[in-house]
Design a protein that fits this description.
This protein has 169 residues and is mainly alpha-helical. It has a single domain, classed as Four Helix Bundle (Hemerythrin (Met), subunit A). The chain is 60% helix and 5% strand. The chain has a two-stranded antiparallel sheet. α1 packs antiparallel against α3 and α3 packs antiparallel against α6. The chain is globular. 32% of the residues are buried.
């Protein structure tokens, strides 16, 4: 049995971004109920040299859209990193979900052998096939940032569990 690139990408991103959206909603409610300044959570990090929650969410959304776009053979849409609130992050997730949900499944299915170059022309240039890009680069990075966002909130007392993280499937 083979698993399609589409099945291993877009639906996975949709599920996990849905879970991330729900976790962020719980964090916003948590802050309001406990009279915690939202920025205390948005700027929280697990360790000083790691990205804050806000940036973790931005990067997770970036991986979902960029991996999906490259697999589909379309230009990666630019999103300015101007989010400053929970509502802004929810809007970014929604925009990402709308974009990836509109990509043609057939374009992604045919991407297993597509040549994908990241950071073209720079010393950190990497060349992948579509399959290796998704499985060895895109998904691990995406899961790292969604997991870290979840962990930041859990560490800061937001009552979330594995079901929240995994989202609806």
């Amino acid at each position: 049995m083979t698993v399609s690139l589409y099945a291993a990408s877009v639906p996975v991103f949709q599920q996990m971004l849905g879970g991330l959206s729900a976790v962020l909603h719980k964090a916003e409610v948590h802050a309001a109920e406990r009279k915690i300044e939202p920025d205390a959570l948005l700027q929280a990090r697990l360790y000083p040299d790691m990205f804050a929650l806000l940036r973790q969410v931005q990067v997770a959304a970036d991986f979902a859209k960029s991996v999906s776009a490259r697999l589909a053979g379309v230009e990666v849409p630019k999103m300015d990193d101007t989010e400053a609130t929970f509502a802004d992050l929810q809007a970014r997730i929604a925009k990402t979900l709308t974009f990836i949900g509109g990509l043609p499944q057939a374009d992604i299915e045919g991407a297993a052998d597509r040549r994908i170059v990241t950071q073209a022309g720079t010393p950190k240039e990497k060349v992948f096939t579509g399959q290796s890009y998704l499985l060895n680069y895109g998904l691990p990075h995406f899961f790292f940032h969604t997991t870290t966002a979840y962990a930041i909130l859990r560490h800061n007392g937001v009552e979330v569990g594995k079901k929240d993280y995994v989202g609806k499937y």
